[in-house]
Specification:
- With about 700 residues, the chain is an alpha+beta fold.
- The radius of gyration is 26 Å and the shape is globular.
- Helix content is about 25%, strand content about 25%.
- A nine-stranded antiparallel β-sheet has the order 1-6-7-8-9-14-13-12-11.
- The protein has three domains: about 220 residues, Beta-galactosidase, Chain A, domain 5, CATH 2.70.98.50; about 180 residues, Glycosyltransferase (Alpha/alpha barrel), CATH 1.50.10; about 80 residues, Golgi alpha-mannosidase II (Immunoglobulin-like), CATH 2.60.40.1180.
- Helix 10 packs across helix 12.
- The protein is built from 17 helices and 31 strands.
Length: about 700
């Protein structure tokens, strides 16, 4: 249990606020979050597909909690709060003790049976009271029924002509006697699950519990075997694993991916309905998944984006007279809007035109990380829709493509007293940094995929023309230094967010291979903006600092300061924006510090503090390479690269002279960039000569 978070603070936010602070476990679909009630501990239960699919108004619709179980615990025990969030095993362990008496709980969520298992044990002097399941107080139908063998059945349902889709949740609760204490099992089946027969809970017993717990541990062990990160700095290592854990507990339902608050739902009305905010929040949660070699966690990512295509086409034609797709800021699952407006359509878009193209960035990361043609076939039709929109929307002036009427920040059309005259400059902004970065990233990738799939060769000339002749990133002078300007026309600067660096990360348009001038402007911009403690965009700011080669000691120092300020006991973050997205800060940034590959060249420990020992195994590099290496006492060693697709590889030589071994041959080189062909399954070893 190396990667275990010890929590000694009783939950203050769970059950009261959108972002909970109690310990978390889950199976990628069902989530359990600890809270408390007046007499002890509460287990809040949520499920990724329990949505009220109402579109009108901020107060209706969104992801909802399923319910909770309350456990009565004597105050003299409960005040000695001790909880372990066991990330290696996917469990929560609780022990409340006054030194004489105790109450213990072991909680996990099984993957095979969609069950929450809670085993409780009390010392002899402590009376045990069976926990009571309390369904969430929701807008919808609710039915309770007593079954055989002490099983309680609950049915909760959202239905009606005013909903985009109906949702039904069946919950079965059973208490199983054990030698000491109790095993409570809660089975959840939704109308979207393939098998829906909650009566099977009658068959479960203590042996089922033991088997399910073992299976759960095996599953988490296999999950972590896909990659690893170890460091002599325990803070860095713990947070790298927390990044993996918090995404894994909520990102395995392929039709209902995690929104702003994952499946950590403990209140009836979460902020922004817990939706998929496409102007960065939704994407940010997945920023580190591919580089950490957990591409399976992105399997769910595209579902709500693809489900919005038909409405996106309608919006493009109706509102902008364009082909392709035009997406709003907030969407839900299965084609649902989370802010529908029939009177002022810009309430859905907030002056921004980039949400559909922004939603491609995780798909682009996965493509370059895997070169999986089956995945390319899946995303290519949507990419063509995005391309069609921008081919028509861009304005060509004297051979330069310009992005017009595209706000860099959200314009508050939702305000009751909104006056368009007050926001005239923002409404007519041109060439904002983010959209320019997204366009370059997207069309470069589209050309690459088109070639790999041998499709649409006749359209590549247009796409390449956009890449070659898109408006340059605007700059201006601020505080005596040249920095990036937020737009070429409109907003020049804003001290309250990180939008001036997102063309660098996640868009990947500037990095260590860029010319010195671009890097100088990037660093000037970063330090002038000075958003290390940003309450919104940390998932971009920190990896950006590594991309442009800032000092590693500074990056780690400021990361620790940020986490100390914003991180909750359960490793989530309490920021000004959403919740889940900033859980990616640690793994995304650390991966960039120890391994970079986005510019077609692999770099080992390019931005790393050589005073910290570190090793990583099977991080994923662009080109479909799995990479391992270590650094100890400032010396790089143990470099191993597995080629999955047999592509040519370029490596920045980490040594003055390197010995390279691959496929039975060895050569020595002092070239700064090592280039070699690989075969499928080839393994390359590099060491200092």
């Amino acid at each position: 249990m190396k990667h275990t978070t010890i929590i000694r603070e009783r939950p203050k936010r769970s059950g009261k606020h959108s972002t909970p602070d109690g310990a978390i476990c889950g199976n990628g679909d069902i989530g359990v979050i600890l809270g408390e009630h007046k007499n002890g501990m509460t287990c809040h239960i949520s499920k990724a597909d329990f949505w009220l699919a109402g579109e009108d108004g901020q107060s209706d619709g969104g992801i909802k909690p399923v319910g909770m179980l309350n456990f009565d615990i004597p105050h003299r025990l409960y005040e000695n709060y001790y909880v372990e969030q066991r990330m290696d095993e996917g469990e929560i362990f609780c022990r409340f003790s006054d030194g004489k008496d105790y109450a213990e709980f072991l909680i996990f969520v099984s993957h095979k049976t969609r069950c929450v298992w809670i085993k409780s044990e009390f010392s002899e002097n402590i009376p045990f009271k069976l926990p009571k399941f309390i369904p969430a107080d929701i807008k919808g139908e609710s039915l309770k029924k007593d079954g055989d063998d002490g099983v309680l059945f609950y049915k909760m349902k959202f239905s009606g002509d005013n909903l985009v889709f109906d949702t039904e949740m069946n919950v079965a609760v059973r208490n199983i006697d054990s030698d000491r204490g109790n095993i409570c099992v809660i089975l959840l089946d939704s109308s979207f699950d393939k098998k829906s027969d909650s009566s099977r809970i009658k068959e479960y017993n203590g042996e089922t519990y033991d088997r399910e717990r073992n299976d759960n541990r095996v599953r988490w062990k296999k999950f972590y075997e896909k990659s690893s990160f170890t460091s002599s700095d325990e803070f860095l290592e713990m947070n790298w694993y927390a990044s993996q854990y918090l995404l894994a507990v909520c990102a395995l339902n392929t039709d209902f991916p995690p929104g702003l608050y994952g499946n950590f739902i403990t209140v009836n009305r979460v902020n922004w309905k817990g939706d998929y905010h496409l102007n960065y929040n939704y994407q940010g949660s997945f920023y580190g998944a591919c580089s950490s070699n957990h591409t399976e966690l992105t399997d769910c990512y595209s579902a709500p984006i693809f489900d919005m295509r038909e409405r996106g086409r309608q919006f493009a034609e109706k509102f902008l007279n364009q082909h392709g797709v035009f997406y709003p800021v907030g969407i839900g699952p299965k084609g649902m809007l989370t802010e529908k407006s029939d009177d002022v359509w810009e309430k859905m878009f907030l002056g921004q035109r980039s949400n559909a193209i922004h939603s491609t960035d995780i798909m682009i990361m996965r493509w370059y990380a895997t070169y999986d043609k089956e995945y390319a076939e899946k995303i290519y039709p949507f990419f063509l829709d995005v391309a069609a929109f921008w081919e028509g929307y861009l304005v060509n002036r004297d051979g330069i493509y310009n992005v017009v009427c595209d706000a860099v920040h959200e314009i508050p059309y939702y305000k009751d007293d909104f006056d368009p005259k007050e926001y005239d400059e923002e409404i007519h902004e041109e060439n904002n940094l983010l959209s320019l970065g997204l366009l370059r990233m997207f069309f470069k990738c589209l050309i690459d995929i088109s070639r790999e799939l041998d499709r649409d060769s006749g359209r590549r000339e247009k796409w390449q023309d956009i890449v070659d002749n898109l408006h340059e990133f605007p700059t201006f002078e601020k505080n005596g230094k040249e920095v990036f300007r937020y737009t070429s026309k409109g907003t020049d600067w804003n001290d309250s967010n990180g939008l001036c660096i997102q063309h660098i990360y996640p868009c990947g348009q500037i990095g260590l291979s860029s010319d010195s001038k671009a890097l100088e402007i990037s660093r000037n911009t970063f330090f002038t903006n000075d958003r290390w403690d940003d309450g919104n965009a940390g998932c971009s700011i920190f990896p950006c600092s590594a991309r442009i080669g800032l000092g590693p000691k500074l990056i780690i120092k400021r990361m620790k300061q940020n986490f100390d300020k914003f991180q909750l006991p359960n490793m989530l973050f309490l920021h000004g924006g959403g919740c889940l997205e900033n859980s990616s800060i640690a793994c995304t940034t650390l991966n960039e510090m120890v391994l970079q590959s986005y510019e077609g060249i692999i770099r080992f420990f390019p931005v790393w503090d050589r005073d910290i020992d570190c090793s990583f195994r099977d991080l994923r590099a662009d080109g479909a390479f799995l990479v391992s290496a270590s650094i100890k006492d400032g010396k790089i060693d143990g470099i191993k690269i597995l080629s999955e697709k047999g592509r040519k590889i370029r490596i920045e030589n980490p040594f003055e002279k390197a010995e390279v071994s691959a496929d039975g041959s060895t050569f020595v080189t002092d070239e700064r960039v090592i280039e070699t062909e690989t075969g499928i399954g080839s393994v390359i070893y590099i060491k200092e000569k």
